[in-house]
């Protein structure tokens, strides 16, 4: 019985060559399978993931940075924190101002207390008694003056005292009427305005406290951590750069000759050079303005042609699609209006 012989070096190289040729044939078939299909339009573009710079609306000192570059973020996550002590103090002052303004308005609505009105009424009675006594004294002095038992000077003094007492009585009666009527409508309107201003200031203070916390607006990946705890930041100064993951856009360009073959909503298959994964999406936007093809996606056929930019929304994107990555798009033109007609 013969022992099977091992393949020689030449045989091994031939086998490797056969495998390479087979893989090349499969790859060529995959790349060229749709070129002869009139219902498939092949375009080239790039991944265009949106990025956002996150910043505080208030200025202050950073106390916490919760994430590092490369971390995955979910919407609503607390990403950074400012020292909120100054803003909490302003909030407490605003709450006190509102309470004071509201108390003053309540006082205007209720008017004077019953004890205050009773006090003014007692002053009226005292003034009435003084005025009555002054009137009797004046009459007595006038009678005495007519009989010659009193001087003109005494009669004039009695008359002055009577007039003063009458004036004090009138003033007391007016004060009683004012106390009983309460505050003027203009005073109440001004009190309401002060309460509204204090409430607005309180709302601003609460917003400032809330703005001391930086919240992630959407799901994404941190691509830059710009500041560190302890740093002083101004309003609007970026502290993070965030790459948004949903939705993922592709930017591609179509020539004028093929413009009528596509429309918003047209289905698209997406391929990358780094993976065999096929992504799916649809055209979401076609620019109404022509432009020269950018150098990043130009081809020999479109090198000097005017093209139209379009945006594709990918429905099943994953981590395999990264910012700026070149992609190949196979557009299904069979269902577009131009093809149906």
Automatic annotation (TrEMBL):
Instruction: List the SUPFAM superfamilies hit by this protein, alphabetically.
Output: HlyD-like secretion proteins (SSF111369)
Q: What coarse category fits the chief subcellular location reported for this protein?
A: other
The record's Gene Ontology cellular component field reads: periplasmic space
Lineage: superkingdom? Bacteria
Residue ranges of coiled coil: 84-137
Q: Which InterPro entries does the record associate with it?
A: HH_YbhG-like, UPF0194_transport
Name all YbhG-like alpha-helical hairpin domain ranges.
82-210
Q: Which UniProt keywords apply?
A: Coiled coil, Membrane, Transmembrane, Transmembrane helix
Question: Pfam families from the xrefs?
Answer: HH_YBHG (PF25881)
Q: Which residues cross the membrane?
A: 12-32
The subcellular localization recorded is: Cell envelope
Q: What protein is this chain from?
A: Secretion protein HlyD
Gene source species: Rhodanobacter lindaniclasticus
């Amino acid at each position: 019985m013969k022992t099977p012989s091992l393949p020689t070096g030449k045989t091994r190289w031939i086998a490797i060559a056969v495998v390479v040729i087979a893989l090349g044939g499969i790859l060529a078939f995959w790349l060229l399978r749709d070129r002869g299909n009139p219902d498939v339009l092949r375009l080239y573009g790039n991944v265009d993931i949106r990025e956002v710079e996150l910043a505080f609306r208030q200025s202050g000192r950073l106390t916490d940075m919760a994430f590092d570059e490369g971390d995955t973020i979910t919407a609503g996550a607390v990403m950074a924190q400012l020292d909120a002590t100054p803003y909490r103090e302003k909030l407490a002052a605003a709450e006190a101002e509102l309470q004071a303004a509201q108390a003053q308005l309540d006082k205007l609505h209720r008017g004077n207390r019953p004890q205050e009105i009773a006090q003014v009424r007692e002053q009226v009675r005292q003034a009435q008694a003084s005025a009555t006594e002054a009137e009797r004294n004046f009459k007595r002095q006038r009678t005495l003056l007519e009989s010659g038992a009193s001087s003109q000077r005494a009669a004039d003094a009695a008359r002055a005292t009577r007039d003063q007492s009458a004036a004090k009585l009138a003033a007391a009666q007016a004060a009683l009427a004012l106390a009983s009527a309460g505050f003027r409508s203009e005073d109440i309107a001004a009190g309401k305005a002060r309460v509204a201003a204090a409430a607005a200031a309180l709302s601003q203070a609460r917003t400032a406290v809330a703005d001391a916390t930086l919240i992630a607006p959407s799901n994404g990946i941190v691509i830059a951590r710009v500041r560190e705890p302890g740093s002083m930041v101004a309003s609007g100064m970026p502290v993070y750069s965030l790459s948004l993951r949903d939705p993922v856009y592709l930017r591609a360009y179509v020539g004028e000759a093929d413009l009528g073959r596509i429309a918003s909503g047209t289905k698209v298959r997406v391929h990358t050079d780094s993976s065999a994964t096929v992504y799916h999406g649809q055209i979401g936007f076609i620019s109404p303005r022509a432009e020269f093809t950018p150098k990043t996606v130009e081809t020999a056929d479109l090198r000097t042609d005017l093209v139209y930019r379009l945006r594709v929304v990918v429905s099943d994107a994953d981590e395999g699609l990264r910012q700026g990555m070149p992609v190949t798009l196979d557009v299904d033109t069979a269902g577009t209006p131009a093809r149906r007609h």
